[in-house]
Amino acid sequence: MKVIATVEARMCSTRLPGKIMLEIKGKPLLQIFLERASKSKLIDEIIVATTTNPKDDAIVNLCKKLNFRYYRGSEDDVLDRVLQAAKSLEANIIVELISDNPLIDPKVIDNAIQYFLSSKYDYISNFQPLTFPSGIGVQIFYLKVLEEVSSLTNDPFDRENVTWYIYHHKERYKCGNYSAPEYLKDRKLRLDLDYIEDYEFIKKIFENFDDFHFSLKDAMDFLKKNPELRKINANRYVGDEKYI
Predict the structure, then answer these.
(1) Which of 38, 67, 81, 232 could serve as 201's disulfide partner, Cβ 3.0–4.6 Å?
(2) Domains of the chain and CATH, by start
């Protein structure tokens, strides 16, 4: 079974355009994300699923520079973009990741994969319900499931939100959730990159460490010692809203 990770990435974010190319310690956040995700031991290959919009040439150029695979598809039909990216690598299992989660932890990814492989689920996530900090999102499902979904719905909302159809049709698909271990539970902690305040907050975390490969637990321990930092993006939503 070939396990691949698709990474959705584009420059035209509505809330913070070009956010994944903002830099921390001289590195674009997309590069930081890819290098962290690539530490996963159970992902066979990573592919960036970007769009044909010329503005996303910057993403393609970075992928070429870093020697990461990429696929260019529709801006609006994200489901097809992810599906075609996965098919281009002859995947059996898709680990869907989002590039605005720069603090993604490869150990969390691997533990979620192990949970999926040991189950009989068609789909799992680690945020239904949310127990991890927001911004450590992992979804895992079979390519054949996404192929079936693609054939079943042409609703623009379903096409834009890749897995929405799956977990809203539990009569058809067996869905599970990988919950955070106790030491990583903090659903009120926001680690997403959606707003400029998020960038300033995430930057503070990365600047505390000597390299880019600290764990989620390391970051959470740092924030426990410096709780005032959480005020930086405290005015932005936290919880399940982003995912449901």
Answers:
(1) 232
(2) 3-236 (3.90.550.10)
